[in-house]
Amino acid sequence: MSVRDDTCAACGGPLAPRAGRRGRTTVYCSAACRQRAYRGRRAPEAAGSVRELISDVAERAGRLSPQPPEAFYAEVTELSSSVGRLRRIARTARDAAGTPEDGARENVTPGAVTAEGVPAENVTPRPVTNEEPAPAAPLAPDEADEADFAGLLEAYRRELQVHCYRMTGSYDESEDLVQETFLKAWRRRETYEGRAALRAWLYRIATNTCLDHLRRHSRTPARYERLPGMAHGDAEPPTRITWLQPYPDELLADVPAADAGPEAQAVARETVDLVFLAALQHLPPRQRAALVLRDVVGLPAAQTAGLLDMSTAAVNSALQRARPALRAHLPAGERAEWAPVTPPTRAELETVERYREAAERLDMAAMAALLTQDAKLTMPPNPFWFVGRQAIVDFVSQSLDPALPAFFGDWRHVRTRANGRPAVAGYVRRPGTTVYRAQTLEVLRVTGGTAGSGGRIAEITTFEPHLLPAFGLPMTL
Fold first, then answer.
1. pLDDT above 70 for 450
2. How many other C-beta atoms can be found within 10 angstroms of the C-beta atom of residue 124?
3. Sheet of 421-429, strands arranged across
């Protein structure tokens, strides 16, 4: 059935008019319809075989025809989503089939989950005792097509990637680690016998894959240092986490309500705020894993112990150490409960728009008025940092003032969202050129304000622009 751009993809009802709105085409008329569609996609029978997915892509492509821009964009977006899913399934099957049996990579976590040569009884997950249902039908090598198994794995990609992101703080690493998780699961699929939910089995593999990665790449947060000749402000240097990267809110767009089941809960309750992610990086890896699985994913202690090959007492002990350590690295006054990603407020949007306009006008006075007195600017992985409105304005004005020798060029900014906060992608046109090229991705923390008066920017975290394609943004304008 063709999905028109003015009807809900779930119920067929009318969508809200798009007049004056920018960004991705609306697909659902309400959160309830989005939740219903999400549940349908996550149901085992909805995953469908690869053959069904191929047929669906062929049907959609056959229906494609030039039409008004909004409708044409909606049809092409729907087709590209299906093609992207098919491509990821094919890549998982291809990589698994073409990757040599890998026993050379060091597995440092106890009771390795997927290393070749491990007896099947050591790989099959322990029975899960909570309410989570087992798959509709057990998978067996003689009846499960390899590509279809890859398709079942694909249904968990988003949830497992945010899990790997929480564990590492890096978007690039989370992509690599979830793919490694799928390859391990695919190569050892015959050891999965349906005695536990597929989700629990995959979480076990993903968590141990992250722990192996963190053991091989040991790293500890440090403090920024003062650089000669640079006015950083009078405050103490903030924490520096060179590997921290942003996460696109677009990838969380289909998060349902909290009652949609445990797999949805893991995403809906997950914490992607940069402040929380930075605090997590101070915890030892196994404490981090225990806290994430218990307090963020919401698994019971017994199941967490099974996934980590620890006793329940050891998991509870790890939590007793991890929770106060985490709080010690959170800013004073930050909330203890971390809510799901929510739509931006009108005050936030107004503040971001004024910030964008001030940067494009090269208006330093207007930009200064948008900052709090103790605003903070950091630029991971670079060593630059500034605390205080005047320190930030003095630094930025050197590149925005055409009269100064360090003038960088004219700017354009595109609004987006990252880690549950407003963000802008910055593009610069250097003097003598005609193309605006991607330069920054700035995640903003906006405080205070009401609709009509806006708020103030308390923190700017500026990242390098290579992740902009993950946000659906181009590298040039």
1. no
2. 18
3. 385-387, 371-378, 454-463, 437-450, 421-429, 410-418
Tokens 């094919």, residue located: 90
β-pairing verdict for 371-378 and 454-463:
parallel
Q: What angle do CA 191, 194, 197 make, to 5 degrees?
A: 110
Q: Does the predicted TM-score (pTM) go above 0.90?
A: no
The span from the CA of 60 to the CA of 79, in Å, is 6
Closest CA relative to residue 92, chosen from 156, 166, 164: 156
Where does 284-384 show beta strands of DSSP type E?
371-378
Number of Cβ within a 10 Å radius of residue 233: 21
**Greater model confidence, 297 or 44:** 297
Over the range 257-275, which residues count as b (16 or more CB within 10 Å of their CB) and which as e?
A: eeebbbbbbbbbbbbbbbb
Entry field: residues in the chain: 477
C-alpha distance from residue 428 to each of 143, 344, 356, 463 (Å): 55, 26, 13, 15
**Local confidence band at 84 (pLDDT 50, 70, 90 cut-offs):** low
How many whole angstroms separate alpha carbon 287 and alpha carbon 317?
9
| Tokens read off for 392 | 């930030």
407 Cα distance to chain centroid: 34
Q: How confident is the model at residue 420 (pLDDT cuts 50, 70, 90)?
A: confident
Two tokens at 75?
């049809």
Of 263, 168, 241, which is closest to residue 210 (Cα–Cα)? Answer: 168
Q: What is the mean pLDDT of residues 218-233?
A: 93
Q: Say how far apart CA 334 and CA 258 lie, in whole Å.
A: 22
57, 58, 48, 59: which is closest to 148 by C-alpha?
48
Q: 381 preceded by cis ω (within 30°)? A: yes
Distance of CA 227 to the CA centre of its chain: 32
Tally of CB atoms within 10 A around 472: 12
Question: Inter-axis angle of helices 198-216 and 301-308, to 10 degrees?
Answer: 50
Over residues 437-459, the mean pLDDT reads: 85
Is the pLDDT score of 331 beyond 80? Answer: no
**Measured distance CA(66)–CA(68) in Å, rounded:** 7
Rounded to 5 degrees, what are φ and ψ at 449? 90, 155
3-state helix, strand, coil in the chain (%, to 5): 45, 15, 40
Residues 6+ apart with CB under 8 A from 175: 161
For 271, phi then psi, to 5°, come to -105, 115
d(CA 223, CA 235): 12
Residue whose pair of structure tokens reads 């892509």 in the numeric block: 57
Q: Give the C-alpha separation, 270 to 315, whole Å.
A: 20
Q: What is the rounded CA–CA span in Å between residue 279 and residue 323?
A: 11
Cβ density class 91-111: b for 16+ within 10 Å, e for less: ebbebbeeeeeeeeeebebee
